[in-house]
Design brief:
The structure holds two protein chains of two kinds. Chain A contains five helices and no strands. By secondary structure, chain A is mainly alpha-helical. Chain B is mainly α. Classes of the chains: A mainly alpha, B mainly alpha.
Chain lengths: 198, 71
């Protein structure tokens, strides 16, 4: 008969605590690539502008961009970012009643995109198109790329809002979505300053 | 014969001792504004990714310290 062997007790090794959520880390890496994309666009735009014939920019015969109405859109977007930031911070501190604030942030984002769309329609009617000049091409590529990001981030915000309502949104998921929206909000003033004001 | 030697010497010197090649727009654009734009954007595209990596590394180090303090 075999004797029973008593194995010494070895506690299971503890898994090291995760420093950053997978979603957040993935979003950070994604934002890096997007920052470089917009940096490339802006660099090309600055060089083309600097080498404009006779140093005249915008080129003659092209409509001027609506600086004032876009300033209002910019304010709506920044406000949206602020609302989401406050809601996100409250959520991380344990406040679970942020559904309304996330909804407001998403609605302000929708307002921004809708007003930008109206502005585009007016500019197209005035003759500024992708092929009318390098001015038009850069405007639609840079601002259009931002608008696409904004729409993607709004879709993510709406998804987060629905999950919040259902009470099934993790803090990591909210942080991931919020990071995307912060990127969309914070890159816009740089684009606005370069494309509209400079 | 002497003439051919001169031509050969001239070509050799041109090949061996090239002057500065004025092809790089960052260094040799005649327009000051364009040259500054080239320099500024070269700097931006060089240092921006380095800044992003450095910033993330510092943030992760801070997170490590925070987690260690919690434990």
């Amino acid at each position: 008969m075999a004797e029973a062997r008593v194995l010494p007790f070895r506690p299971r090794p503890q898994r090291p605590k995760q420093l950053v959520g997978n979603g957040v880390m993935g979003m950070i890496l994604f934002i890096f690539t997007e920052v470089m994309l917009f940096a490339g666009f802006i660099s090309a735009f600055i060089i083309v502008k600097a080498r404009a014939v006779g140093s005249v920019w915008p080129p003659p015969g092209q409509p001027r961009l609506p600086v004032e109405s876009t300033a209002f859109n910019t304010a709506a977007l920044l406000l949206s970012g602020l609302v989401l930031f406050l809601a996100h911070r409250a959520y991380l501190k344990g406040d679970r009643q942020i559904v309304g604030r996330v909804g407001v942030a998403a609605l302000l984002g929708v307002l921004f995109v809708a007003l930008q769309g109206r502005e585009w329609a007016a500019l197209l009617a005035e003759g500024l198109t992708l092929t009318s000049s390098s001015y038009g091409a850069f405007f639609y590529v840079i601002v259009g790329a931002h608008a696409l990001h904004a729409m993607g981030a709004i879709a993510a915000l709406v998804w987060a809002w629905r999950r919040l309502e259902a009470g099934s949104l993790s803090a990591d998921a909210l942080s991931t979505v919020a990071l995307f929206w912060y990127f969309v909000v914070l890159v816009w003033p740089v684009l606005y300053a370069q494309v509209y004001l400079a | 014969m002497m003439r051919w030697r001169s031509v050969l010497l001239a070509f050799t010197l041109l090949a061996v001792l090239p002057e500065v090649v004025m092809a790089c727009p960052v260094c040799f654009d005649q327009d000051d504004e364009a040259r500054i734009a080239f320099l500024a954007t070269t700097g931006l595209l060089t240092f921006l990714p380095l800044g992003l990596v450095l910033g993330t590394t510092m943030w992760l180090r801070k997170r490590v310290r925070d987690v260690e303090d919690e434990e």
